[in-house]
Amino acid sequence: MAIYFNKLIKIKSPKSQQGSALMLAIFVIVIILLLGLTLVEILSTGNEAVSQEVLGTRAFTAANSGMQGQLQILFPLGGGEGPCPASLPPLEPIEYSFIGVDGLSQCKAFVTCDNYAEVNGIKYYRLESTGQCGTGVMDVNSRSIVLSSRTVIVEARGL
Q1: For the chain, what is the domain count?
Q2: Cβ-contact 81, 89 below 8 angstroms
Q3: β partners of residue 3
Q4: Between these two residues, 136 and 83, which has the higher pLDDT value?
Q5: What does residue 135 show for φ and ψ, rounded to 5 degrees?
Q6: Each residue's pLDDT tens digit, 60-80
Q7: Is the dihedral angle over the CA atoms 26, 30, 31, 35 positive or is it negative?
Q8: Which neighbouring-strand residues pair with 114?
């Protein structure tokens, strides 16, 4: 039964409005579900960024540790100059492994030493240390790579 007021507004009976609350509830549930999924995606992306940042910091620490180890070999505490063992071309890196070192257990450092010049009896060295941390192999088909790498370069001269 319809009631007309001035023949402009038609008011529907309650029987014809059945089911609209159900549609509204489904709409609200879908919107809340989409917001929840978006929030989960944002949080997981944030977790990945933090993990990569931690691995990057560890790789930087491994590179610095490898560099310090090589500098101590090159310039021993007793004075003088030690060998630059990786200075013969091609530059073969010396590998430092950090097994058993807290925080660096899955890290390695690869250090090269190049005696690139000697002027007036003073030797000039270029050392490059690359720290790598994480697991996995860099491969085109690999889907489970968690690996970070940082490089430190130092130039030094003998006394």
Answers
A1: 1
A2: no
A3: 11
A4: 83
A5: -130, 160
A6: 999 999 999 999 988 888 877
A7: positive
A8: 126
| Per-residue pLDDT at 22 exceeds 90 | no
Q: Name the residue range of residue 96's domain.
A: 17-157
49 in a structural domain: yes
Q: Please tell me the predicted confidence (pLDDT) of residue 58.
A: 92
CA 31 to chain CA centroid, nearest Å? 33
Tokens 């090589």 label which residue? 70
Is a pLDDT exceeding 90 seen at residue 42? no
Nearest to 55 by CA among 96, 103, 110, 111: 103
Q: How far is it, in rounded angstroms, from Cα 145 to Cα 132?
A: 12
| Residue 56, SS3 per DSSP | helix
Is the pLDDT higher at 9 or at 152? 152
Where are any strands of DSSP class E within 98-159?
Answer: 107-119, 122-135, 146-157
- Please report, for residues 12, 14, 16, 115, the alpha-carbon distance to residue 7 in angstroms, rounded to integers and kept in the order given: 14, 20, 20, 99
With the CA atoms of 68, 73, 75 and 80 taken in that order, what torsion angle do they form, in degrees rounded to the nearest 10?
170
